[in-house]
Amino acid sequence: MMDVRSFAVIATVVFGIGVYGALARRHAIAVIIAIELMLNAAVLNFVSFSRLAAPGSAVSGQVFAVFIITVAAAEAIVALALVLALHRALKTARLDRFNMLKW
Amino acid sequence: MPADIAFAMLGVMTIGGALVAVGAGNLYRAVLGLMLCLVGMAGLFLLQRADFLAVAQVLIYVGGVAVLIVFAVILTEREGEPLAAAVNPRMVPAALILGAGLTAVLVSVLWRSTPAESPVADVTARTLAEALLNRYLVPFEAVSLLLLAALVGALLIAKEKES
């Protein structure tokens, strides 16, 4: 039961849930949460598939995972700062109210 | 098999947490669901003997990013605008089709594949550190520069403008 497939299935399901959340949610922070879910599913895939690599190169998958976690943290910081700035300007954090670029 | 039981529990925890994170109307509850999902992921890393990654996941995500999101929720919360308006009704059908369809296609492909018989390699924190500081030294430094730039940029964006 505990082979790569089952880990990959869990990662896929979490990724699908994240896709749904990123598209359907209305609050900007909820969308950020969904994006974090998708990034974490990718990390899980890197970790589980790296165990199948040849012993010398198996470490690369985890190095990639470390980089993804770092970049995801940076992304979250910038995204939350943007949400705060938008909230200060528009007094809302709902995505359907962000229509300054629409005409 | 204890490992199988642990795997099943962690899987339920991860997927259930993700569902709460996406489905909860209250944003605080959504962040708690995200934390549950991330802790479950850390457990799945542990099951695959990626112990450094599991610890880093808990430290960075659960301890850092989730708390940061909670602060953002507190700062953007307002009276008169209920957080309960969770989903955009016009987007729900498309999002459901895309999310469920993507999951169904990928899972069916995965289910038909045969599991590879391959030597399972264990990566310890020591080998990970050696790889990061030798072979991947330049990307490692670049990503630290990226973190610095993101930090300064976030401060600049979120700072109150002086009028």
Give structural notes:
The complex is a heterodimer of chains A (103) and B (163). Chain A has a single domain, classed as Helix Hairpins (Orthogonal Bundle), CATH 1.10.287.3510. Chain A is an all-alpha fold and 103 residues long. In chain A, helix 1 packs antiparallel against helix 2 and helix 2 runs antiparallel to helix 3. Helix content of chain A is 74%, strand content 0%. Chain A starts with a helix and ends in a 13-residue tail after the last helix. Chain A contains three helices and no strands. Chain B has 163 residues and is mainly alpha-helical. Chain B folds into two domains: 79 residues, Four Helix Bundle (Hemerythrin (Met), subunit A); 41 residues. Helix content of chain B is 74%, strand content 0%. Chain B is globular. The N and C termini of chain B lie far apart (65 Å). In chain B, 26% of the residues are buried. The chains are: A mainly alpha (103), B mainly alpha (163). At the A-B interface, helix 1, helix 2 and helix 3 of A face helix 1, helix 2, helix 3, helix 4 and helix 5 of B.
Please report the first level of CATH classification, the CATH class of the largest domain in chain B: Mainly Alpha
* Uncertain regions spanning at least 5 consecutive residues of chain B: none
* End-to-end separation of chain A: 54 Å
Task: Supply the number of helical segments of chain A.
Answer: 3
**How would you name the CATH homologous superfamily of the largest domain in chain B?**
NADH-ubiquinone/plastoquinone oxidoreductase chain 6, subunit NuoJ
Question: What is the count of distinct domains of chain A?
Answer: 1
The percent of residues in helical segments of chain B reads over 70%
Largest interface: A-B, 76 and 85 residues
Low-confidence stretches of chain A: none
* Major β-sheet profile of chain B: none
Q: Which strand-content bin applies to the residues of chain A?
A: under 5%
H-E string of chain B: HHHHHH
CATH topology of the largest domain in chain B: Four Helix Bundle (Hemerythrin (Met), subunit A)
Q: What is the tally of helical segments of chain B?
A: 6
